Structure formats: C-alpha cells, structure tokens
UniProtKB/TrEMBL annotation:
Molecular function via GO: oxidoreductase activity, acting on the CH-OH group of donors, NAD or NADP as acceptor; zinc ion binding
Organism: Sphingomonas panacis
Entry keyword annotation includes Calcium: no
Gene3D superfamilies: Medium-chain alcohol dehydrogenases, catalytic domain (3.90.180.10), NAD(P)-binding Rossmann-like Domain (3.40.50.720)
Entries under InterPro entries matching the protein: ADH-like_C, ADH-like_N, ADH_Zn_CS, ER, GroES-like_sf, NAD(P)-bd_dom_sf, Zn_alcohol_dh
Domain of life from the UniProt record: Bacteria
Record's keyword terms, sorted: Metal-binding, Oxidoreductase, Zinc
Cofactor(s) the protein needs: Zn(2+)
Protein name: L-iditol 2-dehydrogenase
Similarity section: Belongs to the zinc-containing alcohol dehydrogenase family.
Domain annotation Enoyl reductase (ER): ranges: 10-315
C-alpha cells in the first residue's frame, strides 16, 4: 500500500509498504479519507523534541473507510462495514484499529466524509464545558472545533460570542448560531466589547480553541466570577504562563478538555455520529479543501496558512 511519511520538517514522501494485517482484536480499514489536524503543524514545522522520519501514515488520526479484514476475537464488525476509527496511521491506503475504537457509520452518512476524531472531540469538549441555556459563552478561535462548539452551545440555548481573526471565520460562526462576533485583533478592545455586551459581568463560560498564549490570556480576562474556562486548544509548542492572580481572584474552574480515556473518546464519537446522521449538525460546510495523498504537504501548508475561506482539509484516499 501507499503511505505518507514525514521525512523531515516540511517534507512528505510517499512510500510503498506492506499492507498491515489485523492482529487479534483489531480490524483493518481500507481508508476513504483522513482529516488534517492542526496538531500536525508542529511536527510539520519541526520541533526540537521530534525525531524524523516519522511512522508511515503516522500523522493521520482522523480516518474513515470500510473494514476489509478482521482479526481473531472480533465480534459485531465485519468486512464491508463503513466505519470511523480512532487510529493513528491513517495517511495511508489502509490502517488497523482496535475493534473497540471503531464505530459504524449508518446509511444516513453514506458517501459523506466523516473525520470522526475531531467531531467526537468537539462533543467531548462540549460535555466538559457544562453549557446551559441562558449563559453567555465566548468561543475564542472559530476553526473546525470552534464552529462545531458554536453550533452545540447555541442549540443548548446559550448566547455565543464568537471571537476569531478572519471575517470568513466570523461569518461561519454566524452560520452556526453565534449571537455576536468580534474580530480578534486588539486584546483590550475585545475585553471592552465583551464588557459592553454582558453589562460588565463577562461570560459564564469561555472556550479557548486556538492553542496559543495570547488567546489563553484573553480567555482569562473574559471569564466572569465563578465561571468555567475550558481549554480546547492544543498547546504543544512549549510552556504557557497564566495569571493565577486573576484566576484565583475570580474563583474560576479551569478544564482541560482533551480526553485520553478511550471509552470517553468513543462516547464523543458516537454522539457525533448520531448528531450528524439525524441532521442536528451539518459539518459539510467545514470540509473546505480536499487533497490527494501525494498532496499532503499542500494540505498541511493550507492548514497552517488558511487561504481564503479555509476551515479543514481532507486527504481523500478513495
């Protein structure tokens, strides 16, 4: 099979390697596609703790496709089942996954792309956020996660203030139900706008979905007394500083919403499948750019540079 390998920073090569066989308790998936995650950008840029080359297919963890082989001891899954999987070498034509980390996709999702990992992540973040009707919720960073969370929070009856750099992102937030939008350009101007919108009470919930220092600083300013600050951004490029004086004074809860319990990860994935299949969530506007496997480098560059109305890249394999 063909698989993408991160050869060194900024360089992808395509290798021909043996197609993996599923071990006991595993299934093999012929992949239709895999989403490109912003967490891929640090390895793509090169960090001092990274080693190269990476594993074949190794950056890909948002894959979906059709099971074509099952290992011993697998029940409830069979060749021909279309699934989303939480597996980790999916920038390739095939990947293997533990059977309990695979969820079937219903007929309602036939022919639709389904990068299950980030969709499930959004539902898990939403659950950890404990958003309720009548609350004011600021969401900082309207990319894929921020857009889905805007929809979930607004559907829950919250008033969403969406904060992002690009006008295209703010328009997307409006599409998904944001009541207010603020351009993320001037730190103190944003604080003043949120004060005006909330009668200086600030927000009961703030979700930081960027993964950089400045948005994290801003999140601490926008949260109200006794509120909940939810860190959904993936901070993997070094240490962070926080204003413990502010956090202490406000008496806030701080939630790191990245789940590592496999059962919780699968819960979010199944919730996402149900929501999209039922029509409660339409993620199709978020899949803005598509690439072939040999264009993975271009997809990573687009994920970094966000040309035009870019939200999410999909690498299509079938």
């Amino acid at each position: 099979m063909r698989a993408a390998v991160l050869d060194k920073p900024g360089v992808i090569r395509i290798d021909e390697i043996a197609t993996p066989a599923p071990a006991r308790g595993e299934v093999r998936i012929r992949l239709e596609g895999c989403g490109v995650c912003a967490s891929n950008l640090e390895p793509w840029a090169g960090q001092e703790w990274m080693t190269y080359p990476g594993d074949a297919g190794g950056l890909g963890h948002e894959g979906w496709g059709t099971i074509d082989a099952v290992g011993e001891g697998v029940a409830g899954l069979a060749p021909g089942d279309r699934v989303a999987a939480l597996s980790y070498r999916s920038f390739a034509e095939y990947d293997v996954a533990a059977a309990d980390m695979v969820a079937k996709l219903p007929p309602a999702l036939a022919d639709q792309p389904f990068p299950g990992e980030p969709l499930g992540c959004a539902f898990n973040i939403f659950r950890r956020s404990d958003i309720r009707a009548g609350q004011t919720v600021a969401i900082i960073g309207i990319g894929f996660l921020g857009a889905v969370l805007t929809k979930l929070a607004s559907d829950a009856g919250a008033r969403v203030i969406a904060i992002s750099r690009r006008q295209e992102s703010l328009d997307l937030a409006r599409h998904y139900g944001a009541a207010e939008t603020i351009a993320m350009h001037d730190h103190y101007a944003i604080i003043d706008q949120v004060k005006a919108l909330t009668g200086e009470a600030m927000c009961e919930r703030v979700i930081e979905a960027v993964g950089k220092q400045w948005p994290l600083d801003l999140a601490g300013e926008l949260i109200g007394f006794g509120g909940r600050l939810v860190i959904a951004g993936y901070h993997q490029d070094g240490p962070r500083q926080v204003s413990m004086q502010t956090w202490n004074w406000k008496g806030i809860d701080v939630i790191n919403a990245h789940e590592r319990d496999p059962a919780v990860q699968m819960r979010g994935l199944r919730e996402a499948i149900d929501a999209v299949a039922s029509g409660r969530l339409d993620p199709k506007p978020l899949y803005t750019h598509r690439y072939g496997l040999d264009q993975l480098g271009d997809a990573l560059d687009a994920t970094r540079d966000k040309p035009g109305a870019f939200v999410k890249a999909l690498v299509m394999l079938a």
